[in-house]
Design goal:
By secondary structure, the chain is α+β, with helices and mostly antiparallel strands. It has two helices and 16 strands. The strands form three sheets. Strands 3, 4, 5, 9, 11, 12 and 15 form a seven-stranded antiparallel sheet that branches. Strands 1, 8, 10, 13, 14 and 16 form a six-stranded antiparallel sheet that branches. The chain is globular and about 45 Å long. This is Ice-binding protein C-terminal domain-containing protein.
């Protein structure tokens, strides 16, 4: 086999590796985080941690001044506590009340993710949300559904899906308040992982060339 033919095989092998990587990435499965506690027993803490399918998540709270806020957790999901009273359900939502502008921050600590959807609870009529991705506003939108009793549960699907490590759920005005019950994400492979697979393919091709050259040398001898 000529050197040109071997080089052509290397190109094919590298291209095949790249296609395999892209196909694997495209088929990455979604992971759903339930942010509630599974019990009708509200809790308030400085943070809550989660782990699903090897993805780690920490939830914290802030207000528009930048000051930290405790996080409220119930069977319906997460909110931001403004008075640390677990019985004050309305005050423990992500609230746009006077001077608050609270934000629930979901930080993925070991990988970047693509945010596919969020499910909101305690949704009232005309409630809206704003999503920050790594500190930058991505979208401001109405939460689907809602009722005058502030008791609706509604899912919002992101299209396109934002990618990042820190997702902030906040409000658009003083009338908004809600909890976040679920988030659905998809892990994003690190560039180093993709390059590693391609390098592995190239190493295999290099070994093939070396074997061919050794075989030729033995035949000539």
């Amino acid at each position: 086999m000529t050197t040109l033919s071997l080089l052509q095989k290397i190109s094919v092998l590298a291209a095949t590796s790249a296609i395999a990587v892209m196909a694997t990435t495209g088929k990455a499965s979604a992971t759903t985080f339930y942010l509630g506690n599974g019990l009708n027993l509200p809790q308030i803490s400085s943070s809550f941690s989660y782990s699903e399918d090897g993805i780690s998540l920490v939830a914290t709270g802030t207000q528009n001044s930048g000051a930290s806020r405790n996080v409220y957790q119930s069977i319906l999901g997460l909110g931001v506590a403004n008075n640390n009273n677990i019985l004050n359900v309305g005050g423990n939502q992500i609230d746009g009340g006077t001077g608050l502008g609270e934000t629930l921050k979901l930080t993925f600590t070991n990988t970047a993710v693509k945010l596919l959807s969020a499910t909101f609870s305690r949704v009232g009529s005309n409630d809206s949300f704003k999503l920050l991705v790594d500190g930058n506003q991505f979208i401001a939108a109405d939460i689907p559904g809602g009722n005058f009793l502030d008791l609706d549960i509604s899912k919002f699907t992101f299209s396109p899906s934002p990618t990042g490590t820190v997702f902030g759920f906040t409000v658009t005005d003083g009338n908004d308040d809600y909890l976040v019950k679920y988030v659905e994400v998809e892990a994003v492979p690190e560039p180093a992982s993709v390059l590693g697979l391609l390098a592995f393919g190239a190493m295999g091709a290099g070994s093939m060339i070396k074997r061919k050259q050794q075989q030729k040398a033995m035949v000539k001898a």
